[in-house]
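This week, look over our next protein:
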Amino acid sequence: MSEPGYFGDHSMVRRVMRTRAVGLTYGLRALVVGAVHPLLYVGTAENTGYRTMPYTRLALTGRLFEAVFLGSKAEADRALAFTRKKHVLVRGVLPEDAGVHYPAGTRYSAFDSRLMFMTMAFTFDSAEVMYDVLVRTMTDGEREGLYQDYVRWGELFGMSVDAAPASYREFRAFFDEYLASEQLFLTDEARMVGSYLSGQRRAHPLGIPVQQLTAAFYLLVQGSLPPRIRRMYRMNWGLAEEVGYRTLSQAVRATHAATPVAPVLRSALSGRSAPAYAALADRERALVGSGRSSMPGIDPRNWVQRNSA
């Protein structure tokens, strides 16, 4: 018997997050959607290596999250302690206006419980959407269970439980209203970074098999985005893209539906996604080590460094 973690083997969060179709897509989607919150984007970009090695940071984040979702309490506690140590460095003020709701000078901190909740919100929403799109439609009870697991997850990272709505229904009403509000704002840099992370912009050519695989992967991420978010990123999305997305997502769902009668699929479709993210990070480190940029056109310096000359 494996050592118990903070979430039981039959919890919704484990059922969802050990599904590789979710584990390999929800993180990128959460980053792309979450970039519309200026405090989250700027706080991350200004205080981490995000501009230089975004995929390496994504791989680290995915590994830490999976340690808490899927690991033992000891493994989770190590991930939580590491994260808290890193969060000490993430604090500051917006150096420039980021829309009318976020003027220059607005403070942010990784320990701000409200911002912790918004991080949880983008992450939970993406996990929920990708499971619905790629696996099956959850029941109302399953959604509530997954949401409550995510609230617990946020608490483990330091979020006050009072920062989150009490129920899934309350959360969905809040979050849908937020996504339709005027609070959303993309800085020019966030738009360009998101265009890389969503596959809209490609940094370097890949071999044909890998290119085809990543194109399918990015199509799923782009198609799962709310239409307003795609418009904010100025994505080219028409009938051909929509048909391709629906065809591909339905094929992935069909594969998961066949799993009970094809046990050989189980090991391929279920488990941790960290190894795949690690391979992505290895490629990025090789690119950067050879003198190339992971995201050409993105200035790796922070705001002070750019404006001190």
DSSP finds 16 helices and two strands in the chain.
